[in-house]
Amino acid sequence: MEKKAESGQLLVLVPCPYQGHINPMLKLGNFLHSKGFSIAIVHTHFNSPNPSNHPEFTFFPIPDGLTADEISSGNAVTIVLAINANCKASFEQCLTDRVTEQELQNKITCIIYDEFMYFSESVANDLNIPSILLRTQSATNFIARNAMIRLHSKGCTPFPDSMLLNSVPELHPLRFKDLPIYIFGPLENYSKLLTNANNVRTSSAIIWNTLDCLDQSSLAQIKQQCQVPIFSIGPLHKFATAATSSLLEEDTGCVAWLDKQSHNSVIYVSLGSLASISEKELAEMAWGLAISRQPFLWVIRPGSICSSDWIELLPQGFLEAVGERGCIVKWAPQMEVLSHDAVGGFWSHCGWNSTLESITEGVPMLCRPCFSDQTVNARYVSQVWKIGIQLENELERGEIERTVKKLMVDEEGKGMRVRAKELKEKIEVIMKGGSTYHSLNELVEFIRSF
Ligand code: UDP
């Protein structure tokens, strides 16, 4: 019988309050809970997860001190910097009063915090509790963002147009235009946030939601330079229960629509939880999808089209033109969608979770990155793993039509689908007995040893 954690071993998890960070952290919680640990989730009021979806965890909200202006700015970098500036005292008080009171039988064994919630580490340090940080983006992105920080500190940013297509020395196949940046607000703030997130401080280890077969040379390079153990245990979404940690309600009606479509015929379109598009880009996307004649399931998140609440700005005549061939929802059960037999391609912004979710279902991708790590991931999808095509230029309906067809029906797309399936199968083996499997076991033993 598998050895469970000693009773009384409580882990406090601190997710960063954005969907792409909450998901892997709660999946990590599911996994560690299955190994016998008690799990407490300490989270901000802003974007708080829904406790009723996770009865196995105890949830502790903390005040985050965010102003209405900060929240309505929608600027993730400003918001996360403010959370780190505001939350130290409320987190410490939460641990010393509420968690201790409610979890009388449980001693806090360790605090596991998202790399962007670095205020947690200083509280852990003050209270003499071990801490581990979770990185939710790829190891290659980590190296790329360090290059970006270096170049920024030398005054080389923003990069001149003449440089954008040049390769970054030692980061092949990344070009300067692929280095992660944040397009809303000054690069100075983004660089500050990343610099803080890079710092391991006194944490005892790093958990990384990635895996050797996707990130091998970057992981090896980082492990060589890092003073603490690194557990690369991705893809986390594959190890956990089906419980959703979506901040928006999932529209499961789209699965019934998928059930009516034929094998590999549907292109699933979603730009994740933060990216947005202009009215002009919306029109090009809409008509590009319409003239491709390919069935599509399109997630249009409320507020993701600039200056509109939802789909009011869709071009006139578009919905009539596509009829039953298109399905539009506000938020989809993405993992269920990607594993559906009808889905043959994923038009994605290439957030790391979406990329991993697509890869583990063997679905080839049409990449349209917007900012942050998405540009790095898109480059790897198209140039390294060769399981997708990147739409590089300004969105234009004719090019969209051609690219959708290339991915969904042409020989080039078939090759990508074959490689995507091969990668999926390789990862299944790694999860059953390869590097991920071993890293997970080592992580559990490491935490038990505290
Ligand atoms: N997601 C979802 N339904 C949607 C769109 C996205 O459940 O309609 C989930 C997706 O499965 C992923 C997360 O939201 O786990 C988005 O994270 P990602 O890193 O891909 O991008 P981000 O939103 O951080 O830009």
Automatic annotation (TrEMBL):
Keywords, in A-Z order: Glycosyltransferase, Transferase
Organism (species): Prunus persica
Pfam families attached to this UniProt entry: UDPGT
Record InterPro entries: UDP_glucos_trans (IPR002213)
Keyword Transferase: yes
Coiled-coil zones: none
Protein's name according to its UniProt entry: UDP-glucose iridoid glucosyltransferase-like
Record-stated family: Belongs to the UDP-glycosyltransferase family.
One GO CC annotation: cytoplasm
GO molecular function, one term: quercetin 3-O-glucosyltransferase activity
